Amino acid sequence: GQQLNQSPQSMFIQEGEDVSMNCTSSSIFNTWLWYKQDPGEGPVLLIALYKAGELTSNGRLTAQFGITRKDSFLNISASIPSDVGIYFCAGHYSGAGSYQLTFGKGTKLSVIP
Amino acid sequence: GAGVSQSPSNKVTEKGKDVELRCDPISGHTALYWYRQSLGQGLEFLIYFQGNSAPDKSGLPSDRFSAERTGGSVSTLTIQRTQQEDSAVYLCASSFTRGNTEAFFGQGTRLTVV
Question: Judging by beta carbons within 10 Å of its beta carbon (0-12, 13-18, 19+), is residue B27 exposed, middle or buried?
Fold first, then answer.
């Protein structure tokens, strides 16, 4: 099956710093999604990307769909304490009528005030 | 409802017992998904429903796992003869149509098998 490699696994940053994380896939996706999960909660959708090369922003968050369709990155600018959580990338490939999302293992973000 | 609702939020069960987990999707969402999240891991796909039918059950780990959906709404995931390795957070998600992969998740059911 498809494999997603998400990095870094965890990161500690100072409040106000910018953050970057990325995902690479062994095969192509049609859609990339980025989710954030707080403790005891389900993942919350942050950004959805549908086209190779697409760059999309949501407030301080910016994500890009890689041109090869095998990678995506998420940037967070000027981090604040509430950015703490686990960030997951997820990919979808619509071939063979599949509707499941393949998830990375997450990047755990800690923000030091 | 306003969001995806799952119950119970926590469940502790003895090894060998059966459990049922419930999911109430967002009203009007025709697609429903079950995922499993083990400690420190990403989400593992279990099953996908479109309406009341399940065209993709490929993620169910064994025949002890089954799921149904009735009225195009509520879904129940059943685990029979639970084992300790079944301990995980079970997450349900729904999306508007089968072509829409923007899935919205519930808060999950944390299952602990002792």
Answer: exposed
User: Each residue of B5-17: pLDDT tens digit?
Assistant: 999 999 999 999 9
Chain A residues with CB under 8 Å of B50 CB are 99
Closest Cα partner for A88 from A69, A109, A110, A67? A109
DSSP code of A83?
Answer: G
**pLDDT above 60 for A47:** yes
B98: closest chain A residue by CA: A99
Q: Does B66 touch chain A (CB under 8 A)?
A: no
Question: Tell me, what's the pLDDT at B99?
Answer: 63
Taking one residue from A and the other from B, the number of pairs with CB-CB distance under 8 angstroms is 61
Query: How many angstroms separate the Cα of A64 from the Cα of each of A34, A74, A83, B46, B96?
Result: 10, 7, 19, 28, 24
Which one has a higher pLDDT value, A62 or B42? A62
Q: Is A49 on the interface with B (CB under 8 A)?
A: no
What is the three-class DSSP state of B44? strand
Q: Which of B6, B26, B38, B43 to mutate to test the interface with A (most CBs of A within 10 A)?
A: B43
